Amino acid sequence: MYYVYILLSEKDQRTYVGYTHNIQERLARHNSGSVMATKHRRPFKIFYTEEFETMTEAKDRELWWKSTSGRRKLKELFKGKEDGILR
Predict the structure, then answer these.
(1) What is the pTM of this model?
(2) Which of 3, 7, 68 is nearest to 35 (CA)?
(3) Contact at 8 Å (CB) between 61 and 2?
(4) Tell me: the pLDDT tens digits for 62-71?
(5) For a surface tag, which of 3, 28, 72, 84 has the fewest beta carbons within 10 Å of its beta carbon?
């Protein structure tokens, strides 16, 4: 299984989107500073995940989350978190 994950920086409240086959290991790498792209924004918590059968599906979905449509949906998810309901 592969996962698309959205991390939320507790430092600046911004998100990071990626994919992996092991979410907990990947989160640990982000929080340890091993990932150059997120090193300065630690610590992170998992905000949202999706599961896929293949790496290709996960990569495609990661790209969608990084698109204009995906970012629009992410804003909706944030709104849901604010009122206690994940949409």
Answers:
(1) 0.87
(2) 7
(3) no
(4) 999 999 999 9
(5) 84
